[in-house]
Amino acid sequence: MATATVPPYGDRTHLIPPTTLRRLIQGWLEEDCPNFDVGGYIVGEEVMKATLLAKSPGIVAGRPFFDEVFRQLDCTSKQFLTRLRKVGYQGVLAGTRKTTPGFRLVEKYGMIIGGCDPHRYDLSSTTMLKDNHVMAFNGAIDQAIHRAKEVGGFSTKVEVECRVYTEAMTAAMAGADIIMLDNFPLGDIPPTASWVKDMPGVLVEVSGGVTEKNIESYAIEGE
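The chain above was modelled as a monomer; its predicted structure follows.
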């Protein structure tokens, strides 16, 4: 199994504040065993050696969480590391915005260690306007963007989910910072992305239906 190298500017485990790590692990343990741990008791106090097995090659990204469990319990641990997403693609890749409830910090950390952009951390990190938000403005994408920028302020980026070329054009011209091409037909992505990228400072995100097997099909030559 490959292990992540430590970057020259520091150990990435320091991204996680120690107090946050302790609180997070304590919450997991309390949820898992709020009362007596009979199973843990009957195995005794003998020091044992554990081996962590992986079903496929990847990058170990959960060491801080694994170690903190042992620090707090000093006995055993469950294999929660299997929840971490292993990312190996060499291009620019952003992780999913959707994370397991209560497990967000772990999965976002796994994305960073795997060389992936973690995307927004929560609803406050970036304002994302989906179709239901736009419908609140009777389908007026530009009005939804203006209201979001008015309330969010200049430092908060606004991302708009677009399903067709005309929506992407409208959103870009209305001042959106990121245009998400959501579930676009593969053939429509290059012309739409090329047009949007001509707008100064606007990023393009492709989402929906992208898998490890077809991701190279979404790469635009020269982009």
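Residues 76-91 have pLDDT under 50 and may be disordered.
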